[in-house]
Specification:
- By secondary structure, the chain is mainly alpha-helical.
- The chain is built from three helices and no strands.
- It has helices spanning about 1-15, 20-45, 50-70.
- The N and C termini lie far apart (about 30 Å).
């Protein structure tokens, strides 16, 4: 379901829909706890690749600038 929402938000951002920025930011906030849980699960999995663990943690701080960018999206005048 979140993938469908991501695609809808992406399409809205590309076509400069007024709802797309706030919806994208809300989606990023909503999935953040799941991303934290994924990182925690990978960090405690002895079979997890160190690269996967590192990428799981590195993507967390990237959500803040993505939320900011989504909120900056404006429809064309």
């Amino acid at each position: 379901i979140s993938g469908v929402a991501e695609l809808a938000c992406a399409a809205g951002l590309v076509t400069r829909q007024p709802w797309a920025g706030p919806a994208s930011a809300a989606l990023l906030v909503a999935v953040f706890p799941g991303n934290v849980q994924f990182a925690l699960d990978r960090a405690t999995d002895p079979d997890a690749s160190p690269m996967v663990v590192a990428l799981a943690w590195l993507r967390l701080p990237l959500q803040a600038p993505m939320i900011w960018a989504a909120l900056q999206a404006r429809p064309r005048d």
